[in-house]
Specification:
Jelly Rolls, Arc Repressor Mutant, subunit A, 3 domains, five-stranded mixed beta sheet
Length: 282
């Protein structure tokens, strides 16, 4: 469904549902129009198809871009800034559709307090394509109204919901643990010390924004992400200097320092000794 949605402080599902027996609607938003603060009496899934923009939810302004999914519970107030490049798909549906399914994943999201605003999920490209394809299939069922279309639309919505909840934990959901995701990233850094990772890469892996990731990582490990990664590399280098006959240049490369001179400086800052001096002492 492509339509002009006039600004309103509160939207009701009956204005969007084509059939009250099938309380689902799909709305395509192009060109990122501004929406003042508003709420609604339905659940809303937002799939950002392309571009980027700003939205406000739960008292905080956040940037969204292609690949982001948002879940907004009933009465959660939010707004969008005017963002000409932003295109997204909104799936609106009655809360009862998921509450009827006790085995549905992600049910903790349904208890998300409205004042906490939106839960956010970062989708990899393949998952985004699958999610958009399912949303389009729901839309086609609602438009064509072939025999059994209501059942098919509900089944496709359930499939989409399950796909999203299988991907990763939702940032901001009642049951999520940002620290747990940060710890998983820290464990991977420890297992793969030579892998190149920027702060943005780590945040992407954790499925959250850089700002939130840095805070969660510091709470989980006591260190900033890049400082933690550097310390892990130095510890691995110390083990190799003590227990192998590899050259300093080889060890620098093995622990992810492409420049041996930079490795030597970083090692001395961390240990007080040059790598060769550390090896002699060890």
């Amino acid at each position: 469904m492509r339509l002009e949605v006039p600004p309103s402080p509160f939207y009701r599902g009956r204005a969007f549902y084509g059939d009250p027996e099938v309380p689902i609607a799909v709305v395509h938003i192009e060109g990122g129009p501004a929406f003042p603060p508003h709420g609604h009496d339905f659940y809303e899934l937002v799939l950002v198809r392309s571009g980027e923009g700003l939205y406000e939810s739960g008292g905080a302004e956040r940037r969204i871009r292609a690949g982001d999914a948002l879940f907004l519970p009933v009465r959660a107030r939010h707004s969008y800034a005017r963002s000409p490049s932003l295109a997204y798909v909104n799936l609106l549906f009655d809360p009862a559709l998921l509450l009827e399914e006790p085995l549905a994943p992600g049910l903790e999201l349904l208890d998300l307090a409205p004042e906490r605003g939106a839960a956010r999920l970062r989708l990899p490209p393949l998952a985004l394509r699958e999610a958009l394809a399912l949303a389009n299939r729901v839309d086609q069922e609602l438009l064509r109204r072939d025999s059994g279309y209501g059942l098919m639309a509900k089944a496709l919505l359930a499939q989409l919901w399950t796909l999203l909840c299988r991907e990763r934990e939702w940032e901001g959901s009642a049951g999520e643990s940002a620290e747990a995701r940060a710890r998983r990233v820290a464990e991977r850094i420890t297992r793969e010390p030579s892998a190149e990772r920027s702060s943005a890469d780590m945040a992407e892996e954790a499925g959250t924004s850089e700002r939130n990731f840095r805070r969660a990582f510091k709470r989980a490990t006591g260190e900033a992400p890049l400082a933690f990664a550097r310390r892990v590399r130095i510890e691995e280098a110390k083990a190799l200097l003590s227990g192998s006959d590899k050259t300093v240049t080889q060890i620098a490369s093995l622990v992810g320092f492409g420049d041996p001179a930079y490795f030597a400086r970083a090692f001395k800052r961390a240990t007080g000794l040059a790598p060769s001096a550390f090896r002699r002492r060890a």
